[in-house]
Amino acid sequence: MKRLVLVGGGHSHLLVLDRLRRRPPAHAEIVLVNPAPLAVYSGMIPGLIAGEYEYRACHIALAPLAAAAGACFIVDRAIALDPSRRQVILQGGRLLEYDLLSLDIGSDSPPIPGEPADAIEIVPAKPMEPFLQTMQALWARARKGGLNRMAVVGGGAAGVELALALHYRMNRASGTRVAMALVSDAHRLVPERGAATGQAVQRLCRRRGVALVLGASADVSCAGITLGGRGTLDAQAVIWSTGAAAARWIGTTGLATDALGFVAVNRCLQSLSHREVFAVGDCASNAEQAWPKSGVFAIRQGPVLAANLLRALAGQPLKTFPFSPHALAILNCGGRYALASWRGAALEGRWVWRWKDSLDRRFMRRFKQPR
Predict the structure, then answer these.
(1) Sequential DSSP letters for 87-129
(2) Number of C-alpha atoms within 13 angstroms, CB side, residue 17?
(3) Hey, is 14 helix, strand or coil?
(4) pTM of the model
(5) Contact between 32 and 13 (Cβ < 8 Å)
(6) How far is 43 from 357, CA to CA, in rounded Å?
(7) C-alpha angle with apex 78: 125 to 249, nearest 5 degrees?
(8) How far is CA 337 from CA 174, 177, 274, 355, 356, in A?
(9) Helix, strand, or coil here: 218?
(10) Coil, strand or helix: which one is 31?
(11) Cα separation of 55 and 89, whole Å?
(12) Are 294 and 106 in contact (CB under 8 A)?
């Protein structure tokens, strides 16, 4: 009997488990490994931060989902991989052998440049669970009057959502007064989207009272956050959201990686160096297609990954991932207000939030009560 090991409870693996529940493979053992019993749905995290959702609404219990798919669920963290022996090494000391392996472990925050600043609390936006725990402490601190100046470093979609959601939560939902700044080394917010989206986001930030510092690189020093010759950022807490970094242990595995350390895969989501290994989501990259590090694309990859894992178990030809650079992006801006970006156009309003809310809730319903 072949063993398929799924490492990580990312968005793609959720969809794989859903597929396996509906179409269990014959003569195969399925094992899911994740460091926590819950998987987080990143699409609802800005709403959680803004106070629009409860914690449990944004998380999926993996044990019942795995059980419905006929999978064994191990709560542990993968810390190493030996492809020559086809073994995953877990933090608890267990060696897990596999015939087929799939990695969906997300990404980490890049190293924060500079030296630690004792007077400022620097909070990486990843990993998600430690970040959410720190947010709880910051809200409590703000309610007691001990926090009144914050900043987010990173002007991509994630940084924008965090800045707007935090500003709303701190100043409206919680009744406190906390100044918020958003810092980006780009001269326009969300540069990965069209100019219309960037302009709309910048107008919204100004309407909300979020100060913008654009075209400035941020570094940590003993004096605080320095802005590349443009002074020092006056903040007591800084959220660092400047992109994605590969998990360090991937670089020790012998798997082919790109220049940044992400697992290099082909258009079938299969490792370039080890055909029995697949990788998706933020932990993977494809030189031909340059997939964005986005939950939207991880969800798109899920059905193709599920099909290819089943095909690989059966010795059948694999499918290619039909990548398209055009993807709908909806930014939750706090206050049940959202902005949608599609093919260069930008739309915003409360109706856009209701649209996003319905899409997110529909996605979550697939996994809340598996049968």
Answers:
(1) EEEETTS-EEE-SEEEE----BPPPPPB---TTSEEEES-SHH
(2) 35
(3) helix
(4) 0.93
(5) yes
(6) 10
(7) 70
(8) 17, 20, 45, 10, 10
(9) coil
(10) strand
(11) 31
(12) no
60, 67 Cβ separation under 8 angstroms: no
Q: What is the spatial distance between Cα 285 and Cα 282, in angstroms, rounded to a whole number?
A: 8
Q: Please, are residues 265 and 278 in contact by the beta-carbon 8 Å criterion? A: yes
CA dihedral of 164, 165, 171, 175, whole degrees rounded to 10:
170
Which domains does the chain carry? 2-35+76-107+245-324 (3.50.50.60), 121-243 (3.50.50.60)
In degrees and rounded to multiples of 5, residue 194 shows phi and psi of -75, 170
195-214, pLDDT tens digit by residue?
999 999 999 999 999 999 99
- Segment 312-332, tens digit of pLDDT: 999 999 999 998 877 899 999
Structure tokens that stand for 357 in this block: 């809310």
Contact 157, 34 (CB under 8 A): no
